[in-house]
Every structure is written in structure tokens, then in C-alpha cells.
Amino acid sequence: MKDTTKRSILRSTHIIFGLTLLGYIYGPPEETRQYLPFFRYFYFPVVLLSGLWMWKGQAIRRLFSGGSDDRNA
Prior knowledge:
Elements: H1 3-26, H2 29-32, H3 36-64
Helix pairs in contact: 1-3
């Protein structure tokens, strides 16, 4: 899979789950209270992890791959 396709999927996931969080935040508390476990344990971690991956994914990949070749250059 190409990097652009991966980035597009990750970005779309982040936006879609982020919009559902906005619906939860700005929705009426009486209606959204029943969805609290979904947002707390599923939606919020997905948005958080996808955002972190888009922001620092390259550094994380470099960390787990055993280092970078450009450090010695």
C-alpha cells in the first residue's frame, strides 16, 4: 500500500471520529450521557492515537526500526 493511501485513510479516520466527538461535546447532555463509554474507551483513543501517528509517526517508526541512517550523515 502506498504511503499516500495510508495517510489518506488515517486522516479520514481522524476526521470522522473527531466529528463524532464534536457531536458528543455539543449535544444535549441528556441524550449523550448514554454514549459516554463509547466515547471514553473507543472514539477518543482512536482520535488521539491517529493524531499522534500523523504528527510523530515517522519518529515512532524510526524508533522501532532500530534508528535512522541520516543520524550518521
